[in-house]
Design goal:
single chain; about 300 residues; Rossmann fold; globular; alpha/beta; eight-stranded mixed beta sheet
């Protein structure tokens, strides 16, 4: 019998790729969205209404799911971090997750698994000269404390659902996330370096990312928190130089003045200078194998698709 997987945030960058991966494995997908009426009908995909701000969800659709992947949340980098925007970022994760878990508890008797998003912001900046592992304590800044509350809301389902939480790094794909922004100036021969360029970026190729989420749905051994990053983090400068090398031709390296970024982005700008080195060892110990473990392999693949 075909299994049905629900996805919140299913119309976004990661959600679209995960949907394609699930269909490839012959699952039926229900995408929970605020505007199901605007979505085209496609084989093996159903769109159902959910609006966590209004505490509303299609209970009939929820009753059908055998597992749910919770990706929804306001974009961290979409707007300046005003007091109002910070509240939106927290509420779209914490309140929405609490609402979803309460509805799953009441109306989803067939659901056995919750796979939930978190972020590498949980750890803050590098401190002790070695990569962060899942048992390390959270930082005290805004993003870290948002992640703490977010994960607590997800783990409240663990008494009735197997719950796996993934702390996302920079997810690199040609059609979403940060990679198109990294690529854009390089297309014109400009290689911008933010800060010293030495800040470490923990990243993962979109194909590995969705295979990892699929593994957590299909394999019952996944439980608790996992760092969702490749085994080989790189400096920001190395990432940009790798993109430039794959593009070829003439390139000029230009350092972006720190005051300019601070003026443009406010508090959020600090995230661009931050080194955050995560270890995926727990993921590797579970048997997961990366298709793109190095930045050279990942960028070569993405650039071949991008042209």
């Amino acid at each position: 019998m075909t299994q049905t997987i629900g996805i919140t945030g299913g119309t976004g960058f990661i959600g679209r790729h995960l949907t394609a991966e699930l269909i490839k494995h012959d699952y039926h997908v229900i995408i929970f969205t605020r505007h199901p009426e605007k979505r085209k009908k496609r084989p093996k995909i159903t769109h159902a209404y959910w609006n966590p701000t209004a505490n509303k969800i299609d209970v009939g659709a929820l009753k059908q799911v055998n597992a749910i992947v919770h990706l929804a949340g306001a974009g961290i980098a979409d707007k300046r971090w005003t007091k109002k925007r910070k509240k939106e970022i927290v509420d779209s994760r914490v309140k929405a997750t609490n609402f979803l878990v309460s509805q799953l508890r009441q109306y989803a008797p067939e659901c056995r698994t919750l796979v939930a998003a978190s972020a590498m912001g949980y750890y803050g900046a590098d401190k002790k000269g070695k990569p962060f592992v899942e048992t390390d304590p959270p930082n005290a800044d805004f993003l870290a404390q948002t992640c703490v509350k977010w994960e607590k809301a997800s783990m409240s389902a663990n008494d009735f659902l197997r719950t796996a939480i993934f702390r996302f790094g920079h997810v690199l794909g040609k059609d979403g996330g940060a990679f198109p922004k990294f690529l854009q100036p390089v297309k014109f021969g400009l290689v911008p370096i933010i800060g010293s360029g030495k800040q470490v970026m923990s990243w993962i190729h979109i194909d590995d990312h969705v295979r990892m989420l699929y593994s957590a749905i299909a394999d019952d051994q996944y439980n608790g928190a996992y760092n969702a990053v490749s085994p080989q983090p790189v400096s920001y400068k190395r990432l940009m130089k790798t993109i430039a090398k794959n593009k070829g031709g003439f390139n000029i390296t230009a350092h972006v003045p720190t005051p300019l970024l601070n003026l443009a982005l406010g508090e959020m700008s600090k995230e661009l200078y931050k080194s955050s080195t995560l270890s995926p060892q727990k993921l590797l110990d579970s048997g997961f194998q990366f298709q793109y473990p190095t930045i050279d392999e990942a960028v070569a693949n993405l650039m071949s698709k991008a042209h």
